[in-house]
Amino acid sequence: MGSKILYYLIIIPTSSLPFWVLYLISDFLYLALYKLIGYRRKVVFNNIQNSFPEKSKKEVLEIESKFYSHLCDLIVESIKAFTISAEEATKRMKDRDLSTMNKYAKQGRHAVMVGGHYGSWELIAITAGITIPYKPLALYTPLKNKFMNDKITQSRSKYGLGMMPIKSIKDQLNELDNKEPFAVIFGADQSPRKSQRAYWMKFLNQETGVQFGTEKFAKEFDAVVIFANIYKMKRGYYEVDYQLITDTPKETEDGFITESHTKLLEQVIIKQPEYWLWSHKRWKHKRPKDQPLNNLLG
Fold first, then answer.
1. What is the pLDDT of residues 17-33, one digit of tens each?
2. Measuring CA to CA, which residue among 121, 157, 155 is closest to residue 240?
3. Which of 134, 116, 135, 129 is nearest to 155 (CA)?
4. Which of 27, 235, 254, 267 has the CA that lies 20 to 30 A from 176?
5. pTM score > 0.70 for this model?
6. SS3 sequence of 184-241
């Protein structure tokens, strides 16, 4: 009952507000979360400081402040996603160049679209079903709260995005394999659940375990691997650029795809660090002694 009250009396009425009002709420959240509560502030500060050891404390705090401002924008934008129109969504998330996507979709090739929790990943998920020449598919872990799980999946899938529970993904992909070209969307920058199964490499000056799922699926389905880079142009407006990593995944050396998309994300973060999800406990696992530290690409 509590989740229904939250959804119908708070989330939906708030989602229906115009963006300018939502950004006033974001400004208030910034003061509350960052200045008053200090939500995960120690985690954020340490993550930034360890990633940029060459920066002064003042520079780290400047990135930290900008990150919290962006995080609060993301919160209200995610709420807006429940009621946003297709026209409004595509106005705020624009594709720079779809030529690579179009080329391989016409060939009937499946794709893996990989990126990180950077910019507005919620908005690109919503618009993918409208803009890219593929059937977009996103993996998710179902919430224990069935009501909220259903509402969130309905919101994300309303414009064509296919939502697939992780446990049944292989069966669903095998079923779709011969029907139409699909693009599986991976956010590959979260900490792996089991460090023993991770691919260990240097990322942002730290030993980092990277999820191997992107590479695994690309090779299994011979899928073109495309890195999606989201740029924040101004408040509430984003652009996405697509960069080919490989169109011959089965011929690549083990680790090449994983290192490639991780290094591309690293370059993006270094240029504008405030738009990455620093509040995530990305480095909570340490590399097991029996796992090598890979450096395939140098």
1. 999 999 999 999 999 99
2. 121
3. 129
4. 254
5. yes
6. EEEECCCCCCCHHHCEEEEECCEEEEECCHHHHHHHHCCCEEEEEEEEEEECCEEEEE
